[in-house]
Amino acid sequence: MPSRLFSMIILLCLPFALHAQSEAPPRYQLYGGYSFLSNSLNGVPGSHHPLNGFDASVAFVSWHNLRFKVDTSGYSGTNLGAPQHPYFILGGGQYTWSIGRESIFGEAMIGTAGANKTWPANSALGQTASFASLMGGGLDTALTPHIAFRVSGGYQYSYFALEVPRFLTPYRIPGLPTNFFRVSSGLVLQF
């Protein structure tokens, strides 16, 4: 009789013990979605046209809610008759706070930007590489235990200039944008 009673007590306590264990945060996050950039590279005053594109990133194992993150985004469009095809490759940190099913995060990244050489208007040639940075944040809402919907935004900086082959030094037209705002949304796979 005592062995049956002991078995019964174990069976009753087992669900409570399993529930008391906290679930470990996912080790990796893989994100992909739509992205919107507030202006084109040659968007001088009076001619501002936003660009549409994609955003993809991978965030690695967290350490005290801080993850190393690699982000890439690409855009396309036209402004002043010139095609615009910038892309950005950034790396940095993402700090996350969990509040129930939602996670709020802040991020800061630096890296490089590239573009097609014909992005300026009037047949001028432009730089194809630039420094870039992004500071922002967002919100993840869990849809399933391994999939979340993400909305994020931030301030993005890049410094593209025009090229003059004779002088080998880039020059800037007054009003050429360096400050951009980026918004993106998509799905996060957490594993």
Give a verbal description of the structure.
The chain is mostly beta strands and 191 residues long. The chain has a single domain (25-190), classed as Porin (Beta Barrel). The chain has one helix at 2-20; strands at residues 29-37, 51-59, 66-79, 82-84, 87-99, 102-114, 129-142, 147-158, 179-190. The chain has an eight-stranded antiparallel β-barrel. Strand 2 (51-59) and strand 3 form a beta hairpin. The chain is elongated. The two termini are 46 Å apart.
Strands across the major sheet, in which order? 1-2-3-5-6-7-8-9
| Total strands | 9
Characterize the quaternary organization of these chains.
single chain
Gross morphology is elongated
CATH architecture: Beta Barrel
Query: Number of domains in the coordinates?
Result: 1
- Mean pLDDT, rounded to whole units? 88
> Nearest-angstrom radius of gyration?
24 Å
Enumerate how many helices there are, as a single number.
1
CATH class: Mainly Beta
CATH fold category name: Porin
Q: Beta fraction of the residues?
A: over 45%
Task: Specify the biggest β-sheet.
Answer: 8 strands, antiparallel, barrel
Flag low-confidence runs.
Answer: 16-21
The helix-strand sequence is HEEEEEEEEE
Pairing-aware structural class of the strands and helices? mainly beta
Quick summary:
It contains one helix and nine strands, in the order H-E-E-E-E-E-E-E-E-E. It has 191 residues and is mostly beta strands.
Name a few traits of the molecule.
single chain; mainly beta; 8-stranded antiparallel barrel; 1 helix; Porin; 191 residues
